[in-house]
Amino acid sequence: MSQADLAAALGVSRQTVISIESGRYLPSLPLAFGIARLFAVPVEEMFVLEEVTK
Amino acid sequence: MTRNKYSRLLTPAVALLAGTGIACAVGIRQNWSAAIASEAIALCWATALYFWGRADTDTGAVLSQQEDERQQLVGLKATQLALAAVIFAIVVVCLIAAASKYEIWPYQVLLVIIGIAYFVGMRAYGVDADESGNGAAHSRLGFPKDQLPD
Predict the structure, then answer these.
(1) Where are the domains of chain B?
(2) Interchain proximity B141–A25, CB inside 8 Å
(3) Continuous segment of H or E residues that includes residue A19
(4) From the centroid of its chain, how far is CA B23?
(5) CA atoms A27, A30, A31, A37: torsion sign
(6) What is the pTM of this model?
(7) I need a surface site. Which of B12, B53, B75, B111 has the fewest CB within 10 A?
């Protein structure tokens, strides 16, 4: 599946898919669940929360 | 993401409308050759906005009103930066006008409008907008009531 195909399936731009892949953008919950649903995996398998230092 | 086929015309149309208004004011109060020049600049700017809006970029998506959630955030940050630049410019121009003994009330009016718009925005988009505490009811996700903690 190309980035353009994934973007079309999720209803977002190709640039947003690239940003999520490269870790520069954290998707919203609805988008994260949409990605997980598309790949038929639990959302916690798609996204790993790293330690956030404040 | 895609709203409708005319949405990309909105930003150029607003720019052209504003530019035409300014050109008319220039024509009425000054001269019509300056007004034509002003209108030509507005037309060029609107055309540039239209072609920027057609580009497959973040800027294009924002200008054509077809942005997704990340591009909305990018657009908001860009707007925030632009507003900070405008406020800084107004303050500088206000200082120069005051030092040159020109009227400063138009600049003060602009700053007051920006301030009022800020608080209206906070009121409209902040938590205060829904004092009933039923914010989750508007969520697209929503949780079944039987799964909520007591």
Answers:
(1) 1-67, 68-129
(2) no
(3) helix A14-21
(4) 21
(5) positive
(6) 0.75
(7) B111
Contact A13 B140 (CB under 8 A): no
Given B56, B58, B69, which is nearest A31 (Cβ)?
A: B69
- Chain A residues lying within 8 Å of B61, measured CB to CB: 13, 15
The 10s digit of each residue's pLDDT in B14-36 is: 999 999 999 999 999 988 999 99
**For residue B54, which amino acid is it?**
R
Residue A46 near residue A38 (C-beta atoms within 8 A): no
Any A CB within 8 A of B103 CB: no
Using the structure block, give the residue that is written with the tokens 């925005």.
B121
Q: Are B104 and B97 in contact (CB under 8 A)?
A: yes
CA angle (B125 as vertex; B84, A43 as ends), nearest 5: 100
Query: Which one is predicted more confidently, B95 or B141?
Result: B95
Q: How far is A10 from chain B (nearest CA, A)?
A: 10
How much is the mean pLDDT over chain B?
86
Please indicate whether, in this complex, the C-beta atoms of A13 and B58 are within 8 angstroms of each other: yes
Are B47 and B13 in contact by the 8 Å Cβ rule? The answer is no
> Hey, what are B21's tokens?
């208004």
What is the pLDDT confidence band of residue B39, given thresholds at 50, 70 and 90? very high
Q: Nearest-CA residue of chain A relative to B62?
A: A13
